[in-house]
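Notes on consecutive records. When two proteins share a document, each keeps its own sequence and its own token line. Never mix them. Below: protein one.
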Amino acid sequence: MSLGLFRFFLRLPMIAFRMAGLVRITNRAKRHFRWALLREGLPGEVVEELVGELDPSAPLRETLLRPSGRQ
């Protein structure tokens, strides 16, 4: 029991750094997507709506932050 818990705590920093890398990649992709839309000449309101609508983390955020009583 304690050996498994010890191994988990040794792997915890590696898991955290991998998750941080995924978040960094997603944020970079959103910035480049926004920049490309602005470079093509779309208005700022349209760009913000598209970036918000096509955000890949939005469904995950809704799932994680949803109150447990509602499905």
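Protein two starts on the next line and is unrelated to protein one.
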Amino acid sequence: MGLSTSLNTAISGLNATQVGIGVVSQNVANAGTTGYVRRTVSNADSLSGLTIGVQNTQVQRLLDKIVQHQLWQEASGAAYTSTRADALSNLDKLNGAPGSATALDTIFNKFTSSLQALQNDPSSYSLRSQVIDGATDLARQLNTLSSGVQALRSQAEAGIAEGVAKVNDLLGALTKVNARIVGSPNDAATAGLRDQRDLILSELSQYVDIKTMEDARGSVSVVTGSGTQLFDGQAAVRFGFDEHSGLKAGDQWSTDPALRGVGTITIRDASGNVSDAITNRIFRSGEIAANLELRDKTLVQAQAQLDEIAAHLAEALGAGGDPVFVDGAGNTPYAGGAAKTGLAARIAVNDDIVQNRALLLGPAGTQAGDATRPAALLAALTQDERSFAPLGLDGSTTGTTGTITGFVQRVVSSQGQAVEAARRLDEGQQVALASIQSRFQETAQVNVDQEMSMLIELQTAYAANARIISTVKEMMDVLMRV
């Protein structure tokens, strides 16, 4: 091997080790940076005539793409379960712990106890007042719970709006970063751009379940779990959402715009075609899907349970005299049918009975000691069998029969079970996410000790190449003096 060949080999090796040392330095400096993926240098030997050297020094990110895709899927699932669990936890706080002073079952039992006491002494004005107070507390609690459920639905509506806007922003940011990656040399700067792109995709997976694929140019394409193309070098669609504020029980989603009282998500493709993303079930996991389910199913069911209680109270306590409960402040008797929707928000105590508490015993002229009606009112709550609409209680889809007291207990129990089920599901999903994160970090996370070991190897190689260059220089000096 000639001196010039040795010199060229040493120089190429020196350049390669310089790149490697720079990458190690970058790894160590970013050991705690979110989204940073460990880099390494990939070298290839070159042979030109009799000259051997190093060529194609490329910076590569060390990550398992299969695990990364699994990570995004699990992240989408975790966003879905945590959004549901948080909302149902807020619903649980609204309902209060079963048996607590502010819980629906406690207030209902207090009302039935006041009727029991009045039945035993119907002539007592103070006991009549206790019945009115108990009925008022029960009506107000149903009003409060209904208002709280609709507030949670409005929060879900706002969450959908925020999520849709965020998805559009992320697709726009992805377009810019992806364009800079395509056609760029595979160096440290491009590795940083790929980190940025992965961070965008990771955040996108929080809102919608995604699958990705990278082509030979380095460009990425993104589709949803339902198969809808979101990105193919540039944003393939744009989402829209017509947010509605201050939702009420009657405001529900429908494929008919004339009947729809909440926002819907539209999707516009590159050709300008517009379709409904909810109708086509575009969102199947992630935060947006969870908020859609909360707004249109879970919380609607919770409202329907409250309305069912209010409707049966109004019907059952309306016989034998003036109704105890009416539909709204106008003292309007409950009419049934479509009036059931949102009744829990409107139910109130009959103002006539509040003004004349003797009406609890029956029409004007009823004897002060007559316990017939108080006994009938109590029986209507605690003994009479009634048919209740199918509301999905305990997972059932058929109607049930029983007393109003039993139905109230079932409602409280079913809501508690739903909260607990959502909590357990979220805990399991978070464990799955943590497990896949750990697997991903085994490869992608920077290990400072490992980097220090690599730095020693590179420094040794650097010194060896530098020594060759120095030796060649000395030999050439000798030759020049001969």
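For the record: Residues 149 and 261 are 16 Å apart (CA to CA).
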